[in-house]
Amino acid sequence: MPASRVMPTRESADLIEVVRDLAARELAPRVAKAEEDEDFPRDVFTTLGAMGVLGLPYPEEYGGGGQPYEVYLQVLEEIARVWSSVAVGTSVHVLSCFGLVGFGTEEQRRAWLPDMLGGGLLGAYCLSEPHAGSDPAAMTTRAVREGDEYVLNGAKAWTTHGGRADFYQVMARTSDERTGISCFLVPAGAEGLSADPPERKMGLTGSPTATMRLDNVRIPADRRIGEEGGGLRIALAALDSGRLGIAAAATGLAQGALDVAVDYARQRTTFGRPIIEHQGLAFLLADMEAAVQSARAMTLHAARLKDLGRPFGREASIAKMVATDNAMKVTTDAVQVLGGYGYTRDFPVERHMREAKVMQIFEGTNQIQRLVISRALARDAGAPIGVAGAGQD
Amino acid sequence: MNIVVCVKQVPDTATERKLRSDDNTLDRDAADGVVNELDEYAVEEALRLKEAHGGEVTVLTMGPDKAADTIRKALAMGADKAVHLVDDALHGSDALSTSYAMAQTLKKIGFDLVILGSESTDARTGVLAAMLAERLGVAQLTLANKVEVEGSAVTIQRVTDYGYDKVQGSLPAVISVVEKINEPRYPSFKGIMAAKKKPVQKLGAAEAELAADQIGLGAAWSEVTEAAAAPPRAAGTVVKDEGDGGVKTADFLSSKKFI
Ligand SMILES: Cc1cc2nc3c(=O)[nH]c(=O)nc-3n(C[C@H](O)[C@H](O)[C@H](O)COP(=O)(O)OP(=O)(O)OC[C@H]3O[C@@H](n4cnc5c(N)ncnc54)[C@H](O)[C@@H]3O)c2cc1C
Ligand SMILES: Cc1cc2nc3c(=O)[nH]c(=O)nc-3n(C[C@H](O)[C@H](O)[C@H](O)COP(=O)(O)OP(=O)(O)OC[C@H]3O[C@@H](n4cnc5c(N)ncnc54)[C@H](O)[C@@H]3O)c2cc1C
């Protein structure tokens, strides 16, 4: 059963309906085969782009939808309920536009954002390196200024959409200081930019992940986003928002698995009754439902803080951690509900389980989220009370 | 070209559909209302014709208040404006009354081309296009899987059992479409936002100048007096193959008049 939602406006409710419709008609019939064949559904992103989903949370003046995260994340969740790879891809695309929207000059925004948000192009985000995942400041990829160009050299690991994207937001070292990192917008066609063969992953196989090699890639200096040395700040700010995207994707994935499990439990009979009427199993389903709804509530709480312009980093980390840990548990239990059938590839829940695992790993492992949360506890005083629509009372 | 698309709100076929206990008409509150699927193809065709020839696309819906959701969807796809024929007096209208009410409205708002789905998923009479054309005294081109307009000539491919017939008429005309005609677009978020600002004219029976004795349950030529759930499907027949499986299967099929 689709989740019950409270949307802030009529239009956002209409959008949710259109997205559900699209997911049921265009995504559901394709997901199983595409994931099995490791087939990247690039055309689905074209459709989502034409609908305005790929630029949804960004300002209308640059071609975005001007919608709050509260809306964008629920759209993402509806996509993930049917196809996680597509939801994760959408989230990564949105992440890859984040630097330019938040830190670019007016001139840079006007030049590139309309295309990046317009739906025709797909982005990628290059922070991780083979030896620098949880600790991105350990990166070694370099950008050296030569006249009015930068020359980039190095390797960026784990790039979602690597080799398939139209542009790459790349973090590279511009000085030897630990945080001497800058942010660049590299077009896919840049000479010297290439992709390794995609990783052979356990799940999320419809989403290509590859190491990007930068071999004397020359880009005009005006493709640096933000200040020289400001890149790590941009990358980490992007991740705060990106984590909300992953939290929503995990929540949708868990909802999808739960729906399959409940459906099955109503139909499958043992000892003369549907298994959902055996309390031992019914309670498992109740816990799954509670886990999904808690994840959604936490994610939307963090989103609303962000939409109000309040600090939300701690809450984003909690949402990412809770939603992805819950998704791991819910999808594992969904396999249990389906018994032996759940363990076969003829039912989607074993795939859901494989997909959930990576969500505990990327955009900051859940250990790193605990690090962020505990540091905030050590540092921050109690947060003030926020009021939506403050000033109107 | 002034195109009117007739869009009906129908109960979602995925949910259980019920009849009202008081008058045996469809309980439209019991299920979620959605756009009759074929009408999305009708809207798409109207939009394509407008994109090719210019003009305006108006949505015409007859239905209760909540049919406004359906109108919004058609506007979000790109239609320019809408007319919503809504009145309690219309409740229970049969196909004749529906075609009367819609024809009266069409005369009032004017049109060069009227496009319908070929059948609704709830009542499924599939007669509305023919009735409208007759009442309006214009050409009738039904079951189209392709539409071409050139000057004042409209040509369609009319789907038949053996392929298609080419049927030509001149504007003004009424067309009904089948699903093979196109691939309806999904509304974009910009379209959804724009739909908010598009004009929707609500017409009551009086404003549409409908005669009271021609509409509603009272005017219906037939009455649903009783309804019962379909009996559950009986167990199937299992044919055991003992060398004569093919013959037995053929006998079974011919006894049911399938072959
Ligand atoms: C499918 C997929 C897609 C990805 N997409 C992208 C992308 O688009 N762009 C991008 O930049 N990156 C991407 N990544 C990379 C991802 O963000 C990293 O894999 C992740 O940050 C972890 O880094 P690592 O793999 O190097 O693990 P490591 O950092 O080596 O960590 C190994 C283990 O040690 C733990 N650990 C590390 N440090 C600490 C600590 N201080 N305290 C406690 N535990 C610790 C970790 O939690 C983990 O369990 C992707 C990864 C995958 C698998
Ligand atoms: C339970 C039940 C009992 C019924 N009993 C009778 C009966 O006894 N006698 C009888 O004559 N009819 C009966 N009806 C039919 C009912 O009156 C129809 O809803 C009405 O006649 C419209 O016909 P249709 O939907 O079959 O149109 P169709 O001809 O199947 O629809 C074709 C197209 O016409 C357009 N269209 C149809 N209705 C509308 C609308 N309201 N607004 C805008 N466009 C529209 C759409 O483009 C649609 O795709 C019954 C319906 C139900 C559900």
From TrEMBL, chain A:
Residues 124-217 form the Acyl-CoA oxidase/dehydrogenase middle domain. Residues 229-377 form the Acyl-CoA dehydrogenase/oxidase C-terminal domain. Keywords: FAD, Flavoprotein, Oxidoreductase. InterPro entries: Acyl-CoA_DH_CS, Acyl-CoA_Oxase/DH_mid-dom, Acyl-CoA_Oxase/DH_mid-dom_sf, AcylCo_DH-like_C, AcylCo_DH/oxidase_C, AcylCoA_DH/ox_N, AcylCoA_DH/ox_N_sf, AcylCoA_DH/oxidase_NM_dom_sf. GO terms for molecular function: acyl-CoA dehydrogenase activity; flavin adenine dinucleotide binding. Residues 10-119 form the Acyl-CoA dehydrogenase/oxidase N-terminal domain. Pfam families: Acyl-CoA_dh_1, Acyl-CoA_dh_M, Acyl-CoA_dh_N. Its cofactor is FAD. Belongs to the acyl-CoA dehydrogenase family. This is Acyl-CoA dehydrogenase.
